[in-house]
Amino acid sequence: NKVEQFIFCKPEDSEKLYDELLRNSEEILKMLEIPYRVLQLCTGDLADWKYQSADLEVWRPTTKNYGEVVSLSNCTDYQARKLNIKCIDKKQNRRVLHTLNDTVLATSRIMVAILENNQQKDGSIKIPKVLWKYTGFREIRGKK
């Protein structure tokens, strides 16, 4: 129950595309109006196959803490070499690609964050505006 993005790219494009993946994930959380933070993992916390990695965490009012909903990584050529993934460039040279991945949304976790961050004092839950056209309603109310 996750939405994932995978990119296979030229080595010279991987850092730019990593930034794009990060912007995409941040934009989704902004549109959902959920408080979040970005944690760039330090090299000591990275797996051997990761060159760069970040987690996006959303605020969880019930736990009074942040929880991870997005994780993205630039694996450079590590995965491509292990899997022998190559391309042929314009000069007909074989090149190993770079791989990037992004868990854009862990769907069950983001649903909890939407509910928790939008619950009102009366127990109702306001639906983020960006979702109105999909839900057909703007609020969830309990039975009286």
TrEMBL record:
Keyword Nucleotide-binding recorded: yes
Biological process, per Gene Ontology: seryl-tRNA aminoacylation
Domain Aminoacyl-transfer RNA synthetases class-II family profile: 1-128
EC number, as in UniProt: 6.1.1.11
Molecular function terms from GO: ATP binding; serine-tRNA ligase activity
Keyword S-adenosyl-L-methionine: no
PROSITE patterns per UniProt: AA_TRNA_LIGASE_II
Keywords: Aminoacyl-tRNA synthetase, ATP-binding, Ligase, Nucleotide-binding
Xref: PANTHER family: SERYL-TRNA SYNTHETASE
Protein name: serine--tRNA ligase
Taxonomic path: unclassified sequences, metagenomes, ecological metagenomes
